[in-house]
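User: Before I run my own analysis I want an independent prediction to cross-check against. Here's the chain; please return only the structure tokens and, at the end, one sentence I can use as a sanity check.
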Amino acid sequence: MNTNIQGNSISFVQQRRDDIANEKLELFQPTDLSISHIDRPSTCKYSAASTALVVVDVQPEYWSYCPEVRKDFPNFPRNISRTISSCRKQGVPIIWIRADYRYNCSPWLRQFERLRGEGNAGQIPYNSASPSDVEWEDFARPMENEIVIPKHSFSAASKTALLDVLKAANIQTVLVCGLITSVCVHHSCYSIFEAGFQVILVEDSCADRGIERHKAVIELYGDYMYDVISSNDLKFNDPVLVSDKLFWITSRNLGDRHRDDGSTSNCLDEDECSHSMSRSTSRTASLESFSSLCDRVM
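Assistant: Structure tokens:
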């Protein structure tokens, strides 16, 4: 009698384990990547007066020199140009992030090279040019009064001036776009989100090495760490007159970065930020005429 009960118990437990295993298999079936995350309307609200756009790594290394990215995202240049143009028209400040990976300031590179091996060839700009000499894509390049911040890791906010710049300008919402969705764009969104900002990913203004990677990131983290919108849905609650511009932190009031040849650049790194922010905080995020404010700064 006891033997039968024990045998039945073992059979029941084994059957339950099999059922659970089957349930897990069904639970983790691949999602339908043909369905876009942005088919679900976003409910996020944001104001032009307290929003900034962060453009991540739109460099030839990740677009012109990456046919696998261009193949799956032929509309990326048009979409990101639309996003940048919309923000400029509304006076939303734009911060440009560029990858500057070097062995002396990017200690992770050696491990990355070990893990990737030959598969890493041509995927990151080793010994990249000076931040002041960076190349930009024709469809997305900074204007003279827009900040360029070099980063030495995947995140735009790791050991850079980005978070200090955003806080100094009283920014609450950060729009993010650029390259590559599953790597530097996502890591940047994550870091900005952790710092307490509302993060909005402009999905069609991002691209990756394959549509599956791009969509997988959106499905995993959209509505979890950040809202997701498209460039066509970029609408601000308090539109600013096109003739007005948001006074932003330029090279003239952040402190010029002096090069060895005596010229200057508006490219910022973390060390320069702490000194220059104290002089610029009270002059940022004002909707007065850009030209009149510049006259006062000068």
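Sanity check: Confidence is low (pLDDT under 50) at residues 24-37, 240-265, 272-298.
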